[in-house]
Amino acid sequence: MGTWDTGPFDNDTAADFANALDEAEPEAREALIRGVLVRTIDATGYLTEAEEALAAAALIAAQCPGGEPADMSCGPEKSMPVFPSDLRVLADEALARIVGDEDGPASNWVDPEDWKQWRVALTRLRAVHAPPPPSIALFGVQP
Q1: CA-based end-to-end distance of the chain
Q2: Residue closest to 64 by CA, chosen among 75, 51, 80
Q3: CA distances, 26 to each of 22, 57, 106, 109, 118 (Å)
């Protein structure tokens, strides 16, 4: 795998995923993203699609409140559809798997500072995917 920085599209595998999204019909892009997230969540052993799942999570986060635009210099050139809210949950679950996989992408970093920067980016993405707290009181508690 060629990695040139710590961003979600800063490696060959994620760049290839971005190309696949660009080549897909607009209505098929959500299915590609959903598929890579579900396969990452359900994977046993080595997470073969961790880089793609991280890239997918970044695209979803870009549409969430507080999300940052995905780096499109290496990401998809074509616009993404508006993603349904259930993808936020899948993205968070996939990111949790990636962060927790000590033998996966986390082990690929030679420079400890790059590893720290990558972990911060994953933590930031997970925070964006977290569901907002309820805005209405669930119980009327009297003092």
Answers
A1: 59
A2: 80
A3: 8, 18, 32, 34, 30
pLDDT at 3 over 80: no
> 3 - beta bridge partners?
11
**Angstrom distance (rounded) from CA 56 to CA 142:** 45
* 71's tokens: 């780096």
Cβ atoms within 10 Å of 57's Cβ, excluding its own: 30
**H and E: helices and strands count for the chain:** 5, 0
Q: What is the pLDDT of residues 62-105, one digit of tens each?
A: 999 888 877 667 789 998 999 999 999 999 999 999 988 776 66
Identify the three-state secondary structure at position 98: helix
CA atoms within 13 A on the CB side of 83: 26
Q: How many degrees, rounded to 5, is the angle at CA 129 between CA 117 and CA 19? A: 70
Q: Are the C-beta atoms of residues 20 and 32 closer than 8 Å to each other? A: yes
Residue 73's contacts (CB-CB under 8 Å, 6 or more residues apart) are 9
